[in-house]
Amino acid sequence: MIKKISSLALLLCVLCLTATAQQLGTWRMYLSYQIATKSAVSGSIIYSLMNGNLLSYDTEDGEVRTYDHLNELSDVNIAYIAYSKEAGKLLIVYSNSNIDLLDGEGNVQNLSALKDKSILGKEISYVSINGSMAYLATGFGFVEVDMKEGVFRNTYKLGKALQCIAASDDEVFFATSDGVFQCPKSNNMQLEKNWTMRATWHTVTDMCCFQGKVMAMTNATLYAMDPASTINTAYDRGNYTYLKVSGDRLFWGNNTQLGMTADPTDSPTILNTPAKWSDVSYVGGTYWMSEQENGLRGYKINDSDIVPTGEVIQPSSPIHDLGYNLNWIGDRLLVAGGINTVSGFSNPATAMYYENGEWTNFKEMDIPAEYPKLKIINTTDLVQDPTDDTHHFASLYRAGLCEYRNGKFVKNYNHDNSPLRSVMPGLSQYYNYVTCSALSFDEEGNLWMASTLKDTALHVLKPDGKWFSLYYEEIDGVSLIDKILHHSSGIKLISSRRIDFRGVFCLDTKGTERTTDDKKVLHQTIINQDGTYYTPDQFFCLCEDLDGIVWVGTSSGLFAIEDVSKVFDKDFRFTQVKINRNDGSGLADYLLNDVSIGCISIDAANRKWIGTQNNGALLISADGQEMLYHFTTENSPLLSDNVQSIAVHPGTGEVVFGTDKGLCSFIGDATAPEEELVKSNVTVFPNPITPDYTGPVAIRGLVNNTEIKILSTSGQLVWNGVSAGGTCLWNGCANNGKHVASGIYHVVANTPEGNKAIVTRIVVVR
User: Fold this and answer.
1) Is 220 in contact with 208 (CB distance < 8 Å)?
2) CA-wise closest residue to 351 among 423, 405, 387
3) 239: number of Cβ within 10 Å
4) Domain boundaries 317-471, corresponding CATH code
5) How far is residue 515's CA from residue 471's CA, in Å, rounded to a whole number?
6) Closest CA to 669 of 687, 690, 691, 648
7) N or C: more exposed end of the chain, with fewer CB within 10 A?
């Protein structure tokens, strides 16, 4: 008995050293902490708002900590932060009017009453702190939050949309489009008649109370208002963008200037700034500047000299919380963050990749002198040269094709130097209408792209730098092409999203640049195997699975092309997967019928990850008969129910979701199968299974459909299963559903043919 316990303990120690992979079924957040806009001070801690996400920096020990709704916070997309020294808490206001209170120990209290209330104008437009009380300006009036007690105190429905609010110990001030109003706290602030108009400034962008004065900023002037008199003084003039009290000083400024004073009755100090600043916090003689794209940076200021301290707080992360188009290339995740649309909506031009725990954000092209008003927005796709992993191309929906090397801009292909044509060639800004989208390399290394709203939609850049273009009447003038799929058969399938040319355009070029002998067809109406007709308003995506079947996502649901070679036949039919009702009726329902499918990705087990526009993400079994997961913002850490893109890493099984609120991932259980069953490739995680572990056990490094048996030391069968791709999951239970006892268990893995088996071990500690 002693010998058995010693063996178990020894094996336990060895296995603990090797169990390092992330637990299956867990989530990761890939949020942006790059663009610093606001900050708040708590002792030696500076809280920084970056891209709507929260970061803290300890000025004493240099610790940087990021926060997200997976670990501490209650929501996403932070609009305001403010600190109360008296309460010892940070106020966090989200764009949906949800509120968190974060204390110095990292504890969070959520106040969701305003978010959950059905009331017009509940959006919070401004935040002010006085003592332990927070004042929140809204579209109907304002709300008081007692930060110390963690409760809403009062709601003031004044029938006014507030632009800003500020409070002293005795009075409250707010600004509307009519002007600035004042009311003593001792009066009944619920009554509109008790509020006195103090100034007729119609556009107040910032307000605060400082040294007995109310400081108010309009578009061009900083005013000092004396609450005890009718005197309003124009304290400084300039197009300033922020106003802030930090420490014992008042700060205001813009991208080029910083103003400061310790007494509003004195002349202010105005300095020219060395960088773009949007906010300042003063801590222990150091000025911490929110430098937008350059992060949070410390400075020392002596008279007119502004000297950086060398401390730049900007963790490796995405440049923006945008994930419109994702794609794994080996261990590298490519991300394009724009949006392919003719609506006029735009995202910053965002191209980046993630590899080995680090983010590389591509440097966007500088605006050339010959195109002075070029709009660099909406990167719709990003692809990597199959022969050179330092070489990339990005499509800009309205500004052509960009070439990069080592993440640095090399060249822009546009109306003047390529076959890409402007939609508005006669305008002075013709260069802002060169559409480009849907990039894809074929097997010969040719780069295919779409140039929409023109007669010729398809263009190809060859490896030698030469171009050729392909004209097809069926897509002449097509408005939105989202995907060019090079099917394993050699046929091209192109998704055309909307209006007259919507559908799936199928093309067989027969390997030549000539179009005269090409086979082609545009499928706009979907007829399924039962003869049911569909005319989807939009065709969103295409994806080929491991069996060569093409899956088509539309506004009318999910459809399959089982045999691509038949797409040119007159009697071609799409297929819809049927799910038996199993209620004795003999009837079945179509899988995801009438669900708007925005994106599809295939994992190593040939299962389908489905992204929807407003219903989260789903995992469907390989045969389509079972829904394995359905993630939404209500039941998971998914950032948004609008899932724009999904990419599955074939080696690790990590599933990355690109949403309209950023990137997050789920550690899935499907990995690429090995070609041979080799003992050195087979790993078990976690191993040992400790008492605090509640997740599944992953047996990896298998061939597809490997048969797994878990045996006791006496050889008794405990559990059996089959791998999905290269991974098999065991829930730690016997076949009877009960957790197995502590001990050493043997894992026997057999190939599907039964011609080879390997054995490894798992340690269970209960």
Assistant:
1) no
2) 405
3) 12
4) 2.130.10.10
5) 7
6) 648
7) N
Top-level CATH class of 2-22+672-764?
Answer: mainly beta
Which one, of 22, 19, 9, lies nearest residue 652 by Cα?
Answer: 22
| Residue 84, token pair as written in the block | 């109360």
**CB proximity list for 118: less than 8 A, separation 6 or greater:** none
Only one residue has tokens 């027969």, namely 510
| Identity of residue 704 | N
3-state secondary structure of 264: coil
SS (H, E, C) 379-401: EEEEEECCCCCCEEEEEECCEEE
Considering the chain, what is the average pLDDT of its residues?
94
The pLDDT tens digits for 687-716 are: 999 998 888 899 999 999 999 999 999 999
Q: Is the pLDDT of residue 631 over 60?
A: yes
DSSP count for the chain of H helices, then E strands: 2, 66
Residue 551 CB contacts under 8 Å (≥ 6 apart), including other chains: 542, 543, 544, 545, 558, 559, 560, 561, 600, 608
Torsion, Cα of 393, 397, 398, 399 (10° steps) = 0
Collapsed DSSP state (helix, strand, coil) of residue 355: strand
Cα 199 to Cα 517: distance, rounded to the nearest angstrom: 76
pLDDT at 675 over 70: yes
Q: Each residue of 45-71: b (16+ CB within 10 Å) or e? A: bbbbbbbbbbbbbebeeeeeebbbbbe
Task: Give me the phi and psi of 236, to 5 degrees please.
Answer: -160, 150
What is residue 22's predicted lDDT score, i.e. its pLDDT? 66
The CA distance from 414 to 396, in Å, is: 10
- The CATH 2.130.10.10 domain(s) of the chain lie at 68-187, 317-471, 480-665
High-pLDDT (> 70) share of the chain, %: 97
**Whole-angstrom Cα distance, residue 375 to residue 370?**
13
> Could you confirm whether domain 480-665 is CATH 2.130.10.10?
yes
Contact predicate 441/383, CB 8 Å: yes
Q: Which CATH superfamily is domain 68-187 in?
A: YVTN repeat-like/Quinoprotein amine dehydrogenase (2.130.10.10)
Per-residue confidence band for 303, with pLDDT thresholds at 50, 70 and 90: confident
Among 434, 458, 457, residue whose Cα is nearest residue 448: 458
pLDDT for 492 beyond 80: yes
635 Cβ contact partners less than 8 Å away, ≥ 6 residues apart: none
Q: Could you give the residue range(s) of every CATH 2.60.40.3110 domain in the chain?
A: 2-22+672-764
DSSP assignment of 169-227: SSEEEEE-SS-EEEEETTS-TT-GGG-EEEE--S---EEEEETTEEEEE-SSEEEEE-T
Q: Which amino acid does the sequence have at 595?
A: V
**304's tokens:** 């007119």
Q: What is the DSSP letter of 746?
A: E
- The alpha carbon torsion through 15, 18, 20, 24 (nearest 10 deg) reads -60
What is d(CA 102, CA 109) in angstroms, rounded to the nearest whole number? Answer: 7
**Assigned token pair, 352:** 């980046």
Q: What distance in Å separates the CA atoms of residue 632 and residue 678, rounded to the nearest whole number? A: 39
Distance CA(150)–CA(87), nearest Å, equals 9
* CA 97 – CA 115 distance, rounded (Å): 5
Mean pLDDT in residue range 362-372: 93
Interstrand relation of 588-590 and 697-700 (parallel, antiparallel or unpaired)? unpaired
**Mode of pairing for the β-strands spanning 171-175 and 180-184:** antiparallel
Q: Are 638 and 617 in contact (CB under 8 A)?
A: yes
DSSP-derived secondary structure letter, 4: H
Closest Cα to residue 154, out of 183, 197, 196?
A: 183
